Amino acid sequence: MKEELKKRVIKGPDGFEFEVDPLQDYYCEAPPTVQPAAYQKIVEKIFNWARSESIWILGFGTGCGAIEMRPLMTPRFDAYRFGVQWRPTPRQANLFIISGYLSTKTLKRAIRSYEQMQNPKYVIGLGSCTINGGMYWDSYNTIKRLDDYLPVDLYIAGCMPRPEALLAGFEEMKKIIRAGKAEGGNLYAENFDWYKANQKKVIHDWDMPEHSW
Amino acid sequence: MQTLYTKLKQLFKLGELTEQRQDLAFITVAQEQLRPLLLHLRDREGFTHLVLLTAVDWMEEGQFQLTYLLNDRAGARDIGLRVMLPRDSATMDSIHDIWPTAATYQRELREMFGIGFPDSPGVNDEFILEGWNDIPPYRRDFDTLKYSEENYSHRPDRETTDPAQHMKQQLYPDEG
Amino acid sequence: MGYQPDRSQYPQQREDGSLDIDLTSGKYLKLWQGPQHPGITGNMSVELTVCGDEVVEGKTHVGYLHRGFEKLMERRSFIQCFPIVCRICVPEPDFNEYCYAAAVEELAGIQSPERADWIRTLILEMGRINSYLMYLGGQAGSLGQGVIGQWTTYVRDLMLDRFEELTGARIYHMFILPGGVRGDLPDGFNKRMEETLCEIENVLKDVYETMFCNAVFKKRTVGLGYIDPELIEPYGVTGPTARAAGVAKDVRKDQPYLVYPELEFEPVVGTDSDVYARADVRRRDLLMSVDLVRQILSKMPNDGKLMTKLPNVLHWKIPRGETYIRGECSRGEYGYYLVTDGSGFPRRVNVRGPSYTHAVALLERLIVNINISDVAGLMVSLHTYPPEIER
């Protein structure tokens, strides 16, 4: 457990002393829950349509794929016209693009970012290295299969995938969302223990709370 | 480079000289000679820029080779100093007071090779790896493929061809 | 050493040199900038200790992109290393290919043909233009001017088109092989290149007027992140960061490689050594690269061999030896230290990325005593790319 997460007494600038228990105060103790579909089918359909037309991406460049994000935001490819935009914080985003290989150190941060995102949330694995390790199949520091650790809705192959491939990927993602098949967040909640066990297998020094949202 | 070597030879006990290029030479130095030699090179000969500090693992010979590469911009020449350390219990004096940036290199060497640099600031902090539980990964006896197979789940349907066989068919099909 | 930041109001130093910061006192706060943060250059993080909105101490954390290249290359043959080296640095991958190819050629005793050297120089200069354009957008963006990034990424896309017709790829070109280059310039390349260069010059004029003449940009960057020229050598500072301090360090001039002796240029030097001066040095360096590309295309020999015949690459063994090859990339001195042991695999490859020294030791020193809001601008001005720090 990290020093910052331990229970301690803090003295404020005004001289007032108070006790802080970060695990209790800042984090939720309950595991994630499955978000049920709307009662009426047509309402769920409208929801899904709206979700598909406002894909907000978390601006976390986890690997080399992040370099093609910049052209996507600019006039040549202009992903904004498809309702796709980049947000700086996980609270505002609903799509997490894992842009390339994840080293175990980044995997830790990626999990925390993913868990802080609000439901419904989607994950796209970008590049061959998220699918089967790609070029780094024998590396000691990168994970080989992303879907063991986070629920992946869509993979975009290539090293590195072109912006056109990404745009096609967004279109495909929209189709999946509209069909109501993008249930990554619920899958994560249902198989929470399985995902956590997998994550802890590769992150040897688990020094963060079980649930970080 | 030969003239510099003869000049240095009068002052220090030096090992063999390898002239790689006209502007690049490597000299083997004993462990205790390194510090005065670095100071001499920096202050008297104009080698003011520490280009890199790295290690090579000669596992078969039971030695680590530390390479200190210095650059003299005005003279447009480089010199590499090789220091051989015994592979088990390898420790070396820190040079962070000569070049502050060396502290970063020493931190990396400590983590990736397990070479000790006592007195170097923050040398035992984690630099690149996090929660590492095996032998330092850049050592030759660390097998990265084995580690990756044991620790990570691989996608089962990945096709692997023997690179030598495959390339042979691609590049030299008529060679037996 | 000359310049010391004013620490008079800051915490006392302990005997071992660390700061006496009591986080429970409520006076100080730990703040992590990165790895998931819009104001960070790539996937790295800076652990800031702040007092009010001033940074008291900063610590760089790297390793989020570590793939263990240097280890992976030890179990790949010399030709198998070629496709993976370019992945070490994403925005400017060509220096990896060149340094690796040149190191292998030197140890194996191969000479690359003359025309291949010209094409290599062309590729390297094109890569430099790309990298600088990326930087200008990032520097403006870190201080709140989003539109500059839109313009520079637009012209960068045009440059990537030239790369694509030359090499077939946008980002990872894999063009500079040991022994030469993979292909020749396509028909009409010079004309389309000239159009691209003109467009870049046009955009740079706009960038100059909107960014460098902008009062807000000037006010925020002049005097920020001052690097004393005396710090250059101890901290191993190279490239534009050193040139902005008035030290004319440029490998292209000091120890010329490839065809640089035949090109006419003077290293761009600044004087003020702050963020503004560094941005300006890079802008002028970019214009110089545009000029260099023109020179290369006009002076290049029209025909000649592109590849030296390599030995059978499946059984390619290189005798025992060691060498160091350097080049001037857009961030500073990029180098490869290659050690061979007579087998078919490299014994050790060490990559010297300029960000290695800039982003850790130097940044930790510069970051003291500045505002939180200026941290992003300062980091970008050092032009760090995390993958080359941790490989």
Describe this structure in words.
The complex is a heterotrimer of chains A (about 210), B (about 180) and C (about 400). Chain A is of the alpha/beta class and about 210 residues long. Chain A has helices spanning about 20-25, 40-55, 70-75, 105-115, 130, 165-180, 185-190, 190-200; strands spanning about 10, 15-20, 55-60, 85, 95-100, 120-125, 155. Chain A has one domain (about 40-200): 3-Layer(aba) Sandwich (Rossmann fold), CATH 3.40.50.12280. Helix content of chain A is about 35%, strand content about 15%. With about 180 residues, chain B is of the alpha+beta class. Chain B has a single domain (about 1-155), classed as 2-Layer Sandwich (Beta Polymerase, domain 2). In chain B, strands 1-2-5-4-3 form a 5-stranded mixed sheet, covered by helices on one side. Chain B starts with a helix and ends in a 5-residue tail after the last helix. With about 400 residues, chain C is of the alpha+beta class. Chain C has a domain at about 80-315: Cytochrome-c3 Hydrogenase, chain B. Chain C has 13 helices and 8 strands. Chain C has helices spanning about 70-75, 80-85, 95-110, 115-140, 145-165, 190-210, 215-220, 240-245, 250-255, 275-300, 355-365, 370-380, 385-390; strands spanning about 30-35, 45-50, 55-60, 175, 180, 320-330, 330-340, 345-350. In chain C, α4 (about 115-140) runs antiparallel to α12 (about 370-380), α5 (about 145-165) packs antiparallel against α6 (about 190-210) and α6 (about 190-210) packs antiparallel against α10 (about 275-300). Chain C starts with about 30 loop residues before the first strand and ends with a helix. Chains in contact: A-B, A-C, B-C. At the A-C interface, β1, α3 and α4 of A face α5 of C.
Topology readout:
The complex is a heterotrimer of chains A (213), B (176) and C (391).
Chain A: E1 8-11, E2 17-20, H1 22-25, H2 41-53, E3 55-58, H3 69-73, E4 84-87, E5 95-99, H4 104-116, E6 122-126, H5 128-132, E7 154-156, H6 163-178, H7 184-190, H8 192-202
Parallel strand pairs in A: 3-4, 5-6, 6-7
Antiparallel strand pairs in A: 1-2
Helix pairs in contact in A: 2-6
Chain B: H1 2-11, E1 14-21, E2 24-29, H2 34-43, E3 49-58, E4 63-72, E5 77-86, H3 102-112, H4 144-151, H5 163-171
Parallel strand pairs in B: 2-5
Antiparallel strand pairs in B: 1-2, 3-4, 4-5
Chain C: E1 29-33, E2 45-51, E3 54-61, H1 69-74, H2 78-85, H3 94-108, H4 114-142, H5 146-167, E4 176-177, E5 180-181, H6 189-212, H7 215-221, H8 239-243, H9 251-254, H10 275-299, E6 321-329, E7 332-340, E8 346-352, H11 354-366, H12 372-381, H13 387-390
Antiparallel strand pairs in C: 1-2, 2-3, 4-5, 6-7, 7-8
Helix pairs in contact in C: 2-3, 4-5, 4-10, 4-12, 5-6, 6-10
